[in-house]
Structure formats: structure tokens, C-alpha cells
Amino acid sequence: MLRFKILSVSSLLIFIIVVSTLLGVCGLDLFIQIVSIKDDTSSLTKFLFIVGAACVVLIVVSVGILSARKIRIRSALNQIPRVYVPIRESDMPRFLYSHVQKKLADSASVRLSLKPLSEERHMDGYGRGTDGQLIHFKTAAAKTLLVLSETVASISPSLAHDGLLPLRSYFEILAQTNIPFNPQYAEAYITRYDGFAVNPNEATEFEYLEFMKVFTLLMRSIQQAY
């Protein structure tokens, strides 16, 4: 934009200087010739020819300067990226700037008035998974026992959880059969797992994330041993 303004102003100044110079020369020449040859017909004819030629030169130069200025302006405009949207008052006429500002204000008003769809509203005990699917925190927490059982069964098939044994008793059996796991992580996992089971309230997202952190550490302590 600065380059465009410099080109525009400089070409306009050059045009004004050239036109002023030519007009001054023509005016001075006209005055001198009239005074000196006012009674000489042949000289007057020559004078008129000179004046006419000067006018032609003036017209040609003026057209050339205006054309060059228009070409430079068009070239500068073509360098503006197509995705550029001018929003400054200096970039457009005042009425257009006011219209753009009004539309932007309308857009902001609509955006502020938007309401989430019913299925997008927050529901206690639910959240979005990594794949964007809606998950129930307590249900997802309960399924971790199945993952734990499958991991242990891959080590010793007979130690798969039967779905009825209390979780603490299950870990006692794993300890007796030398299945390696971190006892601190196991205790934290049991406490949170049983807490979800007996608590009538829905789990919060923070509680669920803390539970999954403990479960991840527990699984890592088992898998690292094999």
C-alpha cells in the first residue's frame, strides 16, 4: 500500500510540473511573439504554427503521463493478494467502509447469539473422547477391568477375571501368582474404581481423567515386565 501511494503521488507531481512548465513557456512565448510581430503577417503565421505544435506536444505528453500512471496503478493493484480484504478506512471510500463495518458488526452479533444444539449441550457424567464420540465416564471406567483382564490373560490365561470376583481379591490373586504390578498404582486404581461403583453421582471429567492416568500407569507396570 505504501508503494502504491508513493507511485501515485510521484506521478501526479511529475504531471503537474510538466504541465505547469509547458503552460509557462507557451504563455511567455505567446506574449513575446504578439508584442514583436503584431504587424507582420508571415511572422504571425509562423507564430501560430509554433503555438499549435506546442499544444500538440502538450497533449501527447499529458496523455503519455496519464497512461503511464494508470498502468502503474493497475500493476500495483494486481500485486495485492486475492484473499486480502481491506477493512481500514484509508483503503476504501467512506461509504463502503461504513457498509463493511456494519456487516462485521452484524456478523459478531449473530455469532454471540448462537446457541448450542441440544445434543451438544453439556451433560453430567459425559464427555468427548479422542475420536469425538460421546462417552460415559463411569461406563468407560468399568470397561478398564476388561482391558486389565485381557492383558493378564495374555500372560496366564487362567487368571482372566470372571466378572464376579471383587477387584481387591483379584489383585491379591495376581500377587500370589507372581503377576508383576506396582502395588501403589493398583491400590489407587482399586480405590477409584470402587468409588465410581458406589457413588450415586456422575463422575466429573477431572475424576475420570485422574482415574485413567492411574490405570495407564498400572498397565504400564504390568506390560514392562514382559
How would you describe the overall organization of this protein?
With 226 residues, this protein is mainly alpha-helical. The protein has three domains: 2-80; 86-114, no CATH class; 126-223, no CATH class. Helices cover 70% and strands 3% of the residues. The chain has seven helices and two strands. It has helices spanning 2-37, 41-78, 94-113, 137-155, 167-176, 183-198, 205-223, and strands at 126-128, 134-136. Strands 1-2 form a two-stranded antiparallel ribbon. A hairpin with a 5-residue loop joins β1 (126-128) and β2 (134-136). α1 runs antiparallel to α2 (41-78), α4 runs parallel beside α7 (205-223) and α6 (183-198) packs antiparallel against α7 (205-223). The model has no long low-confidence stretch (mean pLDDT 80). It is a multi-pass membrane protein. Belongs to the DLT1 family. This is Defect at low temperature protein 1.
Any descriptors?
single chain, 226 residues, mainly alpha, two-stranded antiparallel sheet, 2 strands, rod-shaped, transmembrane helix, DLT1, transmembrane
Shape: rod-shaped
How helix-rich are the residues, as a percent range?
55-70%
| pLDDT < 50 runs, ≥5 residues | none
Strand content: under 5%
Q: What class would the helix/strand composition place it in?
A: mainly alpha
Number of helices: 7
In total, the number of domains comes to 3
Instruction: Give helix and strand order, one letter per element, not per position.
Output: HHHEEHHHH
Extended strand count: 2
Strand order of the largest sheet: 1-2
Report the end-to-end length measured between terminal Cα atoms. Answer: 66 Å
Radius of gyration: 44 Å
Mean model confidence by pLDDT = 80
